[in-house]
TrEMBL record:
Protein name from the UniProt record: Collagen alpha-6(VI) chain
PROSITE patterns listed in its UniProt record: TSP1, VWFA
Pfam family, one: VWA
Superkingdom field: Eukaryota
Organism expressing this protein natively: Desmophyllum pertusum
SUPFAM superfamilies, A to Z: TSP-1 type 1 repeat (SSF82895), vWA-like (SSF53300)
Signal peptide positions on this chain: 1-19
Record's keyword terms, sorted: Collagen, Signal
An annotated GO cellular component: collagen trimer
VWFA domain: residues covered: 35-219, 232-413
Protein's UniProt keywords contain Signal: yes
Originating gene: COL6A6_7
Keyword Signal among UniProt keywords: yes
Length: 494
């Protein structure tokens, strides 16, 4: 088990975040630039005071994997037990060097106390440490704990609220559980609610130290986007009242994560955003130079009007993307792959135009469509598959779990496939031989990397009267079970 956990780290299984190149940066990983927030448990569960040097050594080694500088990675460091102490802020220029951060860690961990209050730790991360984040880079919060949040004193409602606020700000939460206690069922459930799929367990600091040299791979693993010269990426974002005000903030936070993971620039990736309810609202086109930077796009998302509408007309949003974004006037560039990402929580209105009359025009322009359904997605899964095809539909049970899809969606955005299939066309009428067929089209676009063609058959046949086995896409990203967890009330995956 120990070997497997270390191997997972080496392979970079943890979710990816943005890697912004820094030309000629000395020390650490020069290809990774982010705002890195450490929240470190210093309770007596570390066992003995003599283990403090090991804790310090591992944390310092962790920091040394990144290039800390004014223009590179910024680090904020906090320790907690009953209360949380923030030792520096992200925007404090006194800690824009690796040596300064290492000295800070060495001087602040000197005494172990109790009990463990995860609620207080995340409160300080939310209210203090995340102040000073930069719009131009991604933010990662790394919680290192034994997981034993004191059940009598911990305010789990407050804990839940701070997790929500951190995610709404576009920060990724990664949890590292240290020691056997963190792996007990009751503590695993709490840590899972904080980090989702980004929770990783180690038997102790010794084991964490063995894998920490790969922390760059853990937080900033090589992305499939690195082979891309850039893309034209359209975001179609549902803002209907069924989402709700609280969930809409989580949706915006997820957009911030995705935008932060792309290299946006004049000669790199361009983004266009459409918000929609009854009518689409075009926020910007690919050609608008005011949005040719990560900072500008993330600032725009932060400033979206939070007014929600009704009903849902997904068809109109797709038509708007076809007419206003994927055109020469909209800034669609020859030689740059086209990607459209649809984020929605419900089915389109019954008065909508058939998708079969809309999607072919986008496919003809080489647009790769990715559909994300949140909530009761099974009620509108057929629509999502008609829009994007079964292999490019992804689901989350609720908006809290939307961030768990970050890794797989980013990989799909930056896929190295040169061709992909459209959705299956309807089955043909029965032939005289009692057989019917259906087809799909292989769509070719500029390959991002080495590129491969379409994989799989272009035509299927079956005897009349036999039901089709419907492909459900990447079902492993759906959450099985019906029992409720302790706070957000969604199915447990444990």
């Amino acid at each position: 088990m120990t070997t497997l956990r270390i191997l997972a780290c080496v392979l970079g299984i943890l979710s990816i975040t943005a890697a912004v190149p820094i030309s000629g940066a000395p020390g650490g990983n020069s290809s990774c630039k982010l705002d890195l927030v450490f929240v470190v448990d210093v309770t007596e569960s570390i066992r003995e005071e003599k283990n403090i040097p090991k804790v310090i050594e591992v944390l310092q080694l962790f920091v040394q994997q990144f290039h800390v500088s004014a223009d590179g990675t910024h680090v904020s460091f906090a320790t907690f037990a009953d209360e949380s102490t923030v030792h520096n802020s992200l925007n404090d220029p006194n800690y824009y060097t690796e040596d300064a951060v290492l000295a800070l860690i060495n001087s602040t961990i000197n005494k172990l106390t109790r009990p463990t209050r995860l609620d207080n730790a995340l409160k300080k991360a939310d209210e203090v440490q995340l102040n000073g984040v930069r719009k131009s880079v991604s933010t990662v919060v790394v919680l290192i704990t034994d997981g034993r949040s004191h059940p009598r004193d911990t305010n789990f409602d407050a804990l839940r609220d701070h997790v929500y606020r951190i995610k709404s700000r576009g920060a990724r939460l990664i949890v590292i559980g240290i020691g056997p206690a963190a792996q007990r069922e009751r503590y695993r459930r709490v840590l899972k609610e904080i980090g989702g799929k980004d929770v990783y367990y180690f038997d102790g600091y010794d084991e964490l130290g063995l894998g920490i040299s790969n922390s760059t791979e853990i937080i900033c693993p090589p992305s499939t986007c690195k082979d891309s010269p850039g893309m034209d990426v359209a975001f179609l974002v549902d803002r209907t009242k069924s989402i709700g005000d609280v969930n809409y903030q989580l949706l915006k936070g997820f957009l911030l994560q995705l935008a932060g993971a792309l290299t946006i620039g004049h000669n790199a990736t361009h983004t266009g955003i459409i918000l929609f309810a009854k009518y689409p609202s075009l926020k910007n086109t690919f050609s608008d130079p005011n949005f040719h930077s990560n900072a500008a796009v993330r600032h725009q998302i932060d400033g979206f009007d939070d007014t929600l509408g009704r009903p849902t007309f997904t068809d109109r949003a797709l038509i708007e993307a076809n007419l206003s974004l994927f055109t020469e006037e909209g800034g669609d560039r020859t030689g740059f792959p086209n990607v459209l990402i649809l984020l929605t929580d419900g089915q389109t209105n019954t008065a909508s135009k058939p998708f079969s009359e809309i999607i072919p025009s986008l496919e003809a322009k080489g647009v790769r469509i990715i559909a994300v359904g949140v909530g009761d997605y099974e009620k509108f899964q057929d629509q999502l598959e008609e829009i994007a095809g079964p292999d490019r539909v992804f689901n989350a049970f609720n908006f809290q779990e939307l961030s768990d899809l970050f890794h797989v969606i980013l990989n799909e955005i930056c896929s190295t496939k040169a061709g992909w299939y459209s959705a299956w066309r309807p089955w043909s009428p029965c032939s005289d031989a009692g057989i019917k067929t259906r087809t799909r089209t292989c769509i070719y676009s500029t390959p991002h990397g080495k590129g491969i063609g379409c994989v799989g058959p272009r035509m299927e046949t079956k005897p009349c009267g036999v039901g089709a086995k419907r492909a459900r896409g990447l079902s492993e990203f759906r959450l099985p079970g019906k029992e409720k967890d302790w706070n957000f009330g969604h199915p447990s995956t444990d």
